[in-house]
Design brief:
single chain; mainly alpha; nucleic acid binding; MTERF_sf; Mitochondrial transcription termination factor 2; transit peptide
Length: 375
Amino acid sequence: MLRVTTTSLCAFCQKMRLFLPPFASLTSHSKREENQRTVDSLYELSVDIRKVRKLKGWVLSEKTAYVAETAGLLRDMGADTAGIAHILETHPEAVLCPPEDVDAQRDLWGSVCSGQRALLSIIKKFPASFFTVSHHSNQRANILYLQRLRLNKKIISKLMASAPQSFSRPVESNQEVIHTLRETYLDLGGDEGNLRVWLQKLLSQNPYILLRPAETWRDSLGYLREWGFTTEELLSLVSSLRTSISELQPEAMRQALAYVQDALSCSEDELKQVVIRCPAILYYSLATLAGRFQGLMDARVSVEQVKESPNVLELTTQIVLYRIQKLASYGYDVHSGSLDVIVGTKDFEMSYAKLNLRQQRPLFNPVAPLRTAEE
């Protein structure tokens, strides 16, 4: 009888919790009582309190919060009610930042943004980066340093949003990495006049490049030199890699190169040309390379075709099969020609355009369905 009564009581309690209003303070599952004023203020802004409780419940228990002030600042920048609610749900810690710190942050970030609208767009996507106000002096010093290098404002703002850690640390750390990058570029035969453009390209491709120790650049380049890559070839690799060469581990590169050389049955000179045409080989894991190569073999693609168009390894098996089938439906047999027709989104667009295929999807989506006149 006692067991039945207890079970019924527990079930009743669970049902009653469903009827609690979203602004009710649930203290039974938290160590500290919630600040009811904070909860009510967020609720008035249409913030999903349950979501905040689940992700960052401790914020609701802080004694001091600046909900109205934070919302007002975002509103002044052009954010609507839905935008404010989204930002505070994604990063509720924003309401704990003192208004004067947020104002200073807005001015600082505004110096590298084209306007309030551009800054608000960044805040919506990277609220944690903007509302990290504890390293304001380091952020300012790093911005001034990158501006002295005459880097594009868009590049700087992208770095601040995507890799805020690189701006939170002392400026001397970034100066050391930039100095190493400059030395590397010039040692590889780069032109001093093109240094700024080259550096912007690297930072744009990989915002986390400044967080890598300078020594790792030397280690990775040294390993590739041992493979026989010339100075000119190394500069090409450093410039075209989608990841920082400092992120490449010599052992991982050794495994990848050994696998590709064996799979394609090529000499060391041929392997170098394969890598130059498809630098991604250097940073793909062994499992990824093996899976994609096997997928090509299962699709009856020849080893010689892969050797001639190695950048086909940049595509997933799903995309390769889709493109082969799509071209085949219009009478083009990939197996009897070059794989270049399916490599790269723009190249593929041009290939089927020549076959009078009607384009019905944006270039940036390689797997979206194509609709033709017959469909």
